[in-house]
Write a structure and sequence with these properties.
Distance between the termini: 23 Å
Strand content: 15-25%
Number of helices: 9
Largest sheet: 9 strands, mixed
Helix content: 25-40%
Number of strands: 9
Bound molecules: pyridoxal-5'-phosphate
Order of helices and strands: HEHEHEHEHEHEHEEHEH
């Protein structure tokens, strides 16, 4: 299957999930996750209509950024080390993976240097998996309050989660529900640096369930590009 055919199939599934949930298609942004993919592959996806791409490594953003022309939006979706913020601060539209105040403060400092406000999501490890980054639900509340108070050049736009890997997406619906509840708690608050609009959840195996539960951004890699080969990198 080509990237184009895969995207057409995904588009139909997104539309059906929206229909089932009584939501509008425009409420859900498809982010093409391009980690391990070449700039040519990214460009092919962009030619097929992808407007937003997600990467989980700073180095891959640096390598591909200039090779992908046009007004493509870059999303940092992976764990971000504090000392690498400076390399991507002027390149990314949204950082999905803020889970510590130290990281938020560094983003704040670098954004201020560039005279910009950087949009971020708080990453929540909803299932409490040891292997994953992200804060728990209470930690997220604390972090939101701390960022709100201390980081004037950071704007919190919502939440992100990575659900546990599973063959049955129904098993992770509960985590999406929990995240949506937290999202709705904060959605009502409009402050200078907090404005909840994005709920980033759902990957190749579970994006339909995530959309049914309120995702506004789904991050899809394998279903668009096929299986990844990490040995190439
Ligand atoms: C790799 C990755 C994805 C995409 O995963 P697929 O299963 O290939 O769709 C989504 N989100 C994050 C944070 C990732 O690292």
């Amino acid at each position: 299957m080509s990237i184009k055919e895969n995207l057409e199939a995904i588009e139909e599934k997104i539309q059906s999930a929206c229909d089932r949930a009584g939501r509008k298609r425009e409420e859900v942004l498809l982010i093409g996750v391009t980690k391990t993919r070449t700039a040519d592959e990214v460009n092919e996806a962009v030619a097929c209509g992808i407007t937003d791409v997600g990467e989980n490594k700073v180095q891959e953003i640096q390598e591909k950024y200039d090779k992908v022309p046009g007004d493509v939006k870059w999303h940092m979706i992976g764990h971000l080390q504090t000392n690498k913020v400076k390399y991507i601060i002027d390149k990314v539209a949204l950082i999905h993976s803020v889970d510590k105040i130290k990281l938020a403060e560094e983003i704040d400092r670098r954004a201020a240097e560039h005279g910009i406000i950087t949009d971020v999501l708080i990453e929540v490890n909803a299932a409490g998996e040891e292997s994953k980054f992200g804060t728990d639900l209470d930690g997220a509340r604390q972090l939101i309050e701390e960022v709100r108070e201390k980081c004037r050049n950071v704007r919190i736009k919502g939440l992100m989660t990575i659900a546990p890997a599973t063959d049955d997406p129904e098993e992770v619906r509960i985590y999406f529900k929990e995240l949506k509840q937290l999202f709705d708690e904060y959605k009502a608050i409009k402050d200078e640096n907090i404005s909840f609009e994005h709920l980033s959840m759902g990957m190749s195996g579970d994006y339909e369930v995530a959309i049914e539960e309120g995702a506004t951004m789904v991050r899809v890699g394998t279903a668009i590009f096929g299986p990844r080969n990490y040995n190439l990198h």
